[in-house]
């Protein structure tokens, strides 16, 4: 009979203290000397007229005024935009928030509680926000799980697929402007880039499913392929109306082109088709056939476990954020407030200042706020069908995609063309507004 | 588009339930109230008295060690065994009393039906989790303790929906 | 229940006494009572069968809404066809096998209900076959009642009755590595009892 | 690209057929295996393989006396534990000639109908999640609590009640049961109305179930299916009506049937039956006389040698027990004819030729419970 080793709290604490001790010893005896030797030979960089050195960094912690220009400078760095805002970190945090909201929202709709205990005892002020730390708990759980690779799996592809998915979905964020000037890659073919990147997902899903060397993933992968290809065409066609009206592929300029009227007012059908196809692209209910658990277990995710599964989920939620952001950019006027608020002008709240250094201008701050709020709203709308719809069947899905949605999106294109030729709206702006 | 109406109704129904009160029982903070004081049996009448079928309670001053509960359990769960006890009672010459293994018990209550001396009843206590199997075996002394179970909620129904407590 | 301790011996004795009753004299007993209490509906059904099959079948009992005949193995297909087509009992409910080691027979009892004829829907018609215990063989009734396929497979597995002509007479409920006698026979006993 | 290595081995000669083992470790199967062969998305063959939870209930019955058989006989179907015990008690009463007090008959009907609702809700919840409708999983599971609460108040256990005994029921209903039941059943009826909006009239649900897995009345009878499946095919066959047991003949209720015989009908008939069950429970609570609820018996009831065949209408359909007694205190043979086992032939019959995506919609609409079928 196997004896279970008794858990001793004293041993546990002792091991942690022992570990801390060794880390401190290594840091002071090895790492600190190395840093100082390097600093001795390498001259400190000079940024914004201030010579950078470790002492300055330390004093910054006490007196942030010293570091304010530095922070301002950092905000302009491309690396900050890629890594923090509006890049990966922001997207990941947004995705986490979306997951939490989804769970609570769905629970409310289903007359239950949802995440409840995690975080309830930690923050006494967060009693009403039960389950606040649930996402952290889930992350820790996924990190602690073993990643099982099935025998006979194609290991390189199997490992690479989650990473590729995260990279591809993060790449989507690059072209989406989160505020005036707040875009990682302000390129003139932004919309084309979005569709180029979206083309990665079905291929990656198929590769992941094929590499799993199992039957359910394979069927799921084929379903994902069918579905995403069938829905990519209406997705592109629905956006065509926007391109016709704005005459742009650059997403920032598309936002600017929506100055008086958001395109959802001019092209409601296009917005509808885009919303539906975005749901299908995201494999969300009612289009979650590739993950239909009652037929094919978990579809192409079946063999993934632990953090590789976590990465796929993260990728899918980042993609949700990206597509919601794209919807906002294309149809809801991006960072612009609703038309009435745009006239507030000087009464609008001031920007984000830090000890006299303006980090964000008023326009930027309000733009970012509006973008986040709108994106969040669209994301919640995308979560809503999960509570009220069953899963659709593959043949109905394909028929809807190929026959109905494409036809509707053609109607949308004709509406856009009509608006263009009637002069109601167009690259030159609406009638009566003199274009610069 | 005949489906649009149905879809609209479904969305309406779903959003309507965002304001319906939540039905979940928050278990360790809320506990259900039960009817009566546990399942009991009246051998004279031959019928039971409604109540929750939880852990048993054994009245030492009534148990005669007749083994009827153990025999009743024989074909069901074989959870009841008769063990020696230290004390001697006048009415229990053999000084044996039932010991119940709650790892095996199915809580059917037929042992209560078998007891002709009002000695073995059931109580409201259902929180019997233990770390080892041995802890699930309740000796006659443990069975004699009356559990301190306090249910505090029951289903309430109003216009806002049903809820616990 | 206090006599539970010595139940096994008592039970086996009682079984030994009761066995002959259960199978044969019981069949004779209701015949005596029959003229007294058979309702008209059941009587009509019985007359249909006695008119058609005569002495080949034997009435076991006829309670209200329950009739049972015993049929010989060679007549069973004809009997079932007659029951299905002419009388109208069309819904198979159950196929049960009962083992009588003392008599050296295995009884297979079919219970057939009726869905379509309103006058018979409340009745259940049963017919039994007595098969030799060492070689229990009978023709399958799938051609008549399609629904008995899995019931017969179960009976095959649990009692070892071979249904000739059955398309898939193979393992159904028991584990794939079952290597014992069919478990519902009386000489198979549960471990420890 | 070709198929991954593991799949190439299992390809058949046609080179198109893929064999999928749905179960026993599959979220959409239960303790049960369905060997499905697909050609593309079309199922060409479906072979049900029950037996993963076979525990020999029939053999166990032969070793226990009639009372001791009660707790283990309800284990195969704990979602409907009164329903599966009901015919056993009726059969023992016939064999041992035990009278049942009138009040006990009413209580039995109430509990059987409560259990029918509890079962149908459980089934409906799983049907919802099988079609990917998570709200339809949570709502019935939550509303089931309203009825489990009633059952618990009456019997003292949430699912495995062990409440019916030969000669009546174990104990009388608690004092304020009637008011409580009326209050909760009214709310439950209100909840059932909500299901229609979000699930039964949802166009996506209609797309998935209408015209899927059509079983004609003739096939349904010939395959021997029973219960809601049979009634969905247009055969009004309900044991409560055609062969009333206990006090069903004194209650006024309707038997619902639909003519289409597709998955939608099979899902809709249980909903109508739940409405009818509420009606029956309310009637029975009103009409219930006072008096004793259990005939006092010795510990080992026994009857003369003989046999009985008793059937009731459980949630899944006609549930029958064939009891053979040899005069001792233990049954000589107990044959359970369970509805789930009788639905198996329909399963492969309906799945052949349908789409893989229709598998959950058909499979679960058949009301098949692996544990009950295996016994």
pLDDT < 50 runs, ≥5 residues of chain C: 1-35
Shape of chain D: globular
Alpha carbon gyration radius of chain C: 18 Å
CATH superfamily of chain D: Cytochrome-c3 Hydrogenase, chain B
Number of domains of chain D: 1
Helix content of chain C: 25-40%
- Architecture per CATH nomenclature, i.e. the level-2 architecture of chain D: Orthogonal Bundle
SS class of chain C: alpha/beta
Give the strand tally of chain D.
Answer: 8
Number of strands of chain C: 7
Strand order of the largest sheet of chain D: 1-2-3
Strand content of chain D: 5-15%
Q: Termini separation of chain C (Å)?
A: 17 Å
Largest interface: B-D, 47 and 48 residues
Radius of gyration of chain D: 21 Å
Oligomer: heterotetramer
CATH architecture of the domain at 19-136 in chain C: 2-Layer Sandwich
Main pleated-sheet profile of chain C? 5 strands, mixed
Short description:
Chain B is built from 4 helices and 9 strands; from the N terminus they run H-E-E-E-H-E-E-H-E-E-H-E-E. Chain B is α+β, with helices and mostly antiparallel strands and 165 residues long. By secondary structure, chain D is of the alpha+beta class.
Explain what the structure shows:
The complex is a heterotetramer of chains A (436), B (165), C (193) and D (375). With 165 residues, chain B is an alpha+beta fold. Chain B has helices at residues 3-16, 68-74, 110-114, 140-143, and strands at 40-42, 47-49, 56-58, 80-84, 96-101, 120-122, 137-138, 155-158, 161-164. Chain B has a domain at 36-145: Alpha-Beta Plaits (2-Layer Sandwich). Chain B has four helices and nine strands; from the N terminus they run αβββαββαββαββ. A three-stranded antiparallel sheet of chain B has the order 4-5-7. A two-stranded antiparallel ribbon of chain B has the order 1-2. Chain B is elongated, with a radius of gyration of 23 Å. The relative contact order of chain B is 0.23. Chain C is of the alpha/beta class and 193 residues long. Chain C has five helices and seven strands. Chain C has helices at 7-23, 25-37, 40-53, 76-87, 149-159; strands at 58-63, 66-71, 91-100, 105-113, 124-132, 137-139, 162-164. In chain C, the strands form two sheets. A five-stranded mixed sheet of chain C has the order 1-2-5-4-3. Chain C has a two-stranded parallel sheet with strand order 6-7. In chain D, 48% of the residues lie in helices and 13% in strands. In chain D, α5 (102-130) packs antiparallel against α14 (359-365) and α7 (177-200) packs antiparallel against α12 (263-287). In chain D, a hairpin with a 2-residue loop joins β4 (164-165) and β5. The interface between C and D is large, with 50 and 45 residues.
